[in-house]
């Protein structure tokens, strides 16, 4: 019924071909070098071909394959610049679009899920999707009361496809590891698998979106469209115009980039404090920059979409995060180490030098040490390279640290958000947001250059 490949054997075959293709291109590259072509040119061609195949397959399959691709897309700023270019365009394509379902399929699904007279619910319904993503696609419509709405329709077989893809991707996670230096791919895939049920449950998504819409109603900085109607595998919400964040990344002005970055940081840290929920899918396709009627970028709002994956934090972000961050900025190695041990970041069987742990953490938290910080791809690459180099003390120490399960999703969301800020190249007053919204962080203002010692 759908153009989404549903048979497990078909999807498995397509995904299994990826590592074979990577190995084949490596052999092709060796042949090109033997033939006299420079290593640099061969490497660039190899990266280009790898990116084209990898993200072509991920985008065509949708499901878990595309979900994995979207999760990777926010980390492209960690790639060394000489190989980032070939990946960047392919990665960005996954943030806003995917091959759509035929209109006949969509009509059949709506009849099954909203009833045979589904058209009576709408004054207008556009057959061409406005957006298509990993497990569903969105159509613009006009509700029977005249409101512009977005109708999200889940692909048939999406659950089966998600699990099948992520299982297969997990089997060759090590081969995909070099895509993002310093990042362990396997835990990302495992975490995505654990979230499958939530991602598919539109009733649960509607509950989270309604909570955000109510608590951010009339907010001057953040807009969340309200839910109009929800049913099994169909979600109708208010329509939201605006500039997709992916477009701001590609061609936005510096004013737009800075405003979007500031609001993204504000939403990340204020959301859990206000709603008890953490939006856990921060890739650019889920955000819009809404410029007001005055046309000024400094009054633009951040529009937020897709609440299919959230982390439930009834007490907000854990206080130990803010307190540990503050102690690290204060240079209190002993207290930081005690907290990390108490929370399980350092296992009982492991003993580390507290000063070495402090040295490892300080460069990572540099954005919180100053009044404002300019995020950049070069800064992200320097952090990734520091951890990826097996000879470096940072790499050795990172391997001995532990990430407790309760912090896994918070960690991924924070890293993903930082990745988007680096893609934006935004100058952000991050410390300001932390002092207002992060439990345990608020204290006397830090002096400039606190990390220089």
Shape: globular
Q: What Rg, in angstroms, do the CA atoms define? A: 23 Å
Give the uncertain stretches in residue-range form.
1-9, 18-44, 444-453
Fraction in helix: 40-55%
Report, as a whole number of angstroms, the end-to-end distance.
Answer: 63 Å
- What structural category arises from helix and sheet content? alpha+beta
β-strand amount: 5-15%
Count of β-strands: 14
Mean pLDDT: 79
The number of helices is: 19
Helix and strand topology:
Layout: H1 8-34, H2 39-61, H3 63-73, H4 81-96, H5 103-114, E1 122-125, E2 131-132, E3 136-143, E4 148-154, H6 158-171, H7 173-176, H8 185-194, H9 196-200, H10 202-215, E5 222-223, E6 227-231, E7 234-238, E8 243-244, H11 245-251, H12 254-275, E9 277-279, E10 287-290, E11 301-304, E12 310-312, H13 319-329, H14 333-343, H15 354-361, E13 373-374, H16 377-388, H17 393-400, H18 405-424, E14 427-428, H19 430-437
Parallel strand pairs: 5-11
Antiparallel strand pairs: 1-3, 2-3, 3-4, 4-7, 6-7, 8-10, 9-12, 10-11, 13-14
Characteristics:
single chain, 453 residues, alpha+beta, 6-stranded antiparallel β-sheet, 19 helices, 14 strands, disordered N terminus, disordered C terminus
Task: Please describe what this structure looks like.
- The structure is a single chain.
- Strands 1, 2, 3, 4, 6 and 7 form a six-stranded antiparallel β-sheet that branches.
- By secondary structure, the chain is of the alpha+beta class.
- The longest helix has 27 residues, at 8-34.
- Helix content is 54%, strand content 12%.
- The protein is globular, with a radius of gyration of 23 Å.
- It has 19 helices and 14 strands.
């Amino acid at each position: 019924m759908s153009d989404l490949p549903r048979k497990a054997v078909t999807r498995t075959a397509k995904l299994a071909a990826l590592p074979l293709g990577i190995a084949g291109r490596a052999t092709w590259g060796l042949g090109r070098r033997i033939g006299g072509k420079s290593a640099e040119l061969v490497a660039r061609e190899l990266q280009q071909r790898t990116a084209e195949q990898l993200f072509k397959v991920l985008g065509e399959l949708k499901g878990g394959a595309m979900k994995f691709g979207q999760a990777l897309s926010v980390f492209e700023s960690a790639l060394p610049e000489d190989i980032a270019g070939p990946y960047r365009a392919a990665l960005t394509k996954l943030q806003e679009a995917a091959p759509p379902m035929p209109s006949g399929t969509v009509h059949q699904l709506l009849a099954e899920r909203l009833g045979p007279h589904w058209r009576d619910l709408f004054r207008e319904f556009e057959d061409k999707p406005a957006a298509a993503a990993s497990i569903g696609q969105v159509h613009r419509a006009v509700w029977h009361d005249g409101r512009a709405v977005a109708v999200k329709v889940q692909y048939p077989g999406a659950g089966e496809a998600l699990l099948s893809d992520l299982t297969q991707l997990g089997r060759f996670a090590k081969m995909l590891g070099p895509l993002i230096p310093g990042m362990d791919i396997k835990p990302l895939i495992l975490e995505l698998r654990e979230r499958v049920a939530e991602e598919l449950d539109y009733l649960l998504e509607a509950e989270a979106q309604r909570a955000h819409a109510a608590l951010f109603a009339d907010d001057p900085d953040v807009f969340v469209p309200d839910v109009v109607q929800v049913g099994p595998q169909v979600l109708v919400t208010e329509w939201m115009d605006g500039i997709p964040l992916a477009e701001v990344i590609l061609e936005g002005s510096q004013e737009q980039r800075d405003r979007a970055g500031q609001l993204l940081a504000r939403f990340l840290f204020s959301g859990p404090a206000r709603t008890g929920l953490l939006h856990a899918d921060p890739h650019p396709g889920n955000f819009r920059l809404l410029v007001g009627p005055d046309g000024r970028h400094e009054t633009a709002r951040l529009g937020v979409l897709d609440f299919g994956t959230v982390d439930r934090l009834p007490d907000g972000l854990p206080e130990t995060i803010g307190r540990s961050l503050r102690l690290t900025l204060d240079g209190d190695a002993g207290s930081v180490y005690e907290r990390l041990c108490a929370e399980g970041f350092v296992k009982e069987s492991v003993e580390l030098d507290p000063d070495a742990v402090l040295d490892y953490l300080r460069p990572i938290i540099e954005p919180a040490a100053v009044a404002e910080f300019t995020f950049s791809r070069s800064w992200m690459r320097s952090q990734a390279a520091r951890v990826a180099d097996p000879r470096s003390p940072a790499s050795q120490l990172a391997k001995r640290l532990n990430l407790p399960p309760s912090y896994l999703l918070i960690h991924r969301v924070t890293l993903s958000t930082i990745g988007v800020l680096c893609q934006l190249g935004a100058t952000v007053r991050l410390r300001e947001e932390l002092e207002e919204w992060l439990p345990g962080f608020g204290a006397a203002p830090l002096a400039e250059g606190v990390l220089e010692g």
